[in-house]
Amino acid sequence: MKRFLPILALGLSLASCSKNEASKPQAQKETPTVAPVVVAPVTEVPKTPEPKVVTEAAAPAAKPSEFAVTDPNAGLGDFGSPEPIERADLPQRGIVSFNMEDHKNSFAPMQHWEQYNLPFKAARSGRYNVRITYTLKSSTLGVQFKLGEDRFKKQLMGTGGAKSRVYLGETSIAQPGDQFMALYTPNGAGWNTFILHDVSLVPASEGEDVKAAEDGSVNLLAKDATTWSQNMRYESKEEKNCLGFWTELEDFAEWEFTVDKPGKYKVTVHQGCGAGGGSEVAVLLGEQQLKFTVQDTGGFQKWAPVSVGEVEIKKGGTYRLAVKPQTKNGSAIMDVQKVVLVPVS
Prior knowledge:
Elements: E1 96-99, E2 107-109, E3 113-122, E4 126-136, E5 140-147, E6 150-157, E7 164-173, E8 177-186, E9 194-203, E10 210-211, E11 218-221, E12 226-228, E13 233-235, E14 242-244, E15 252-259, E16 263-273, E17 280-285, E18 288-293, E19 299-313, E20 317-325, E21 335-343
Parallel strand pairs: 10-15
Antiparallel strand pairs: 1-9, 2-3, 3-8, 4-7, 4-9, 5-6, 5-8, 11-21, 12-15, 13-14, 15-20, 16-19, 16-21, 17-18, 17-20
């Protein structure tokens, strides 16, 4: 799950112990025996030499724990939990969500476990992060998720009566159509100590982390895009290998990539269209926006490189680039094979 800087969900439980010593009973006072006073002759008492003060060497500094926090600016939310921090500007397009208040009939208590059954119809194929929102009154609870051939488990932490949102793992929908997913919990937890508020499938990247090549160029391939969409999707067939089914104006693609060096980059979109072209499309990088008009290439998998302008990256780091249609001309906007950024010398 990479979109989420590691990023982007378990709470840290801190415990302390203290040990109080039992107070010792005081010894009973005895009455001293008074002896007769004997006056002895006064003699000079020899002086006792003053003891030498021995200065102990300072103890060697303890080796820091491997779990020690070395960043003075780190807060409690910055360590101790593997949960990614969900991005504040998370798009909502393409998220498949189930509000469990509206799906209480999905709850099925069994003899030894309980499950939440969620059949649904997927409009498109794609990869998703599984996210749940829940309340847990006990300290921990183990849950298991199933969708198709994917299975994974998660240990949930108690929420103290508040709602918490966590990601369980990544799953894939291979084909559009009827799907079935389920969440399993121990017996006796549902709607008692454990309240499930929401189950969501959040679009995830289809590929790997994208990094600049040795020459500084960045190749944003279709397979590495996150498709925030209702219909547009990655088509993996060898003769396609592109973002296709781009029939909805609101659907868009997004790539996350890392560059080491700042500078200006020339942006080229490799697109295909066999429906006349003419749709207006924007390429966005932060506040920077470039626009181009889709060209009719004689076929949706006949690619033409379209130079759309230059963007500036002021320092090395990780960035997101999005391709968002602005207008739709015809039945489909375009197919996209890749977007390429090349440093401007």
